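Page 37, continued from 36.
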């Protein structure tokens, strides 16, 4: 497997992790009876979201970079 295939596969798994983290966050908001849920629950989805952003930007730019490399 080449590098681009690895990034694409990681991006897919990160989307599953992000979705699961958002679902956990929603469940925690409705089930925790205190005033404020723990801060780490709210930030749980932030880590996969940042990694999704980086891998998504890489995958978005990939065709343009390849087109420029093949033209020059």
């Amino acid at each position: 497997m080449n590098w681009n295939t690895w990034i694409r596969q990681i991006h897919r798994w990160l989307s599953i992790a992000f979705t699961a983290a958002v679902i956990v966050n929603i469940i925690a908001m409705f089930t925790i009876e205190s005033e404020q849920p723990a801060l780490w629950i709210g930030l749980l989805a932030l880590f996969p979201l940042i990694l999704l952003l980086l891998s998504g930007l890489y995958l978005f730019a990939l065709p343009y970079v390849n087109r420029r490399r093949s033209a020059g």
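The chain has one domain: 3-67. Flag for discussion at group meeting. Helices lie at 3-31, 39-42, 46-71.
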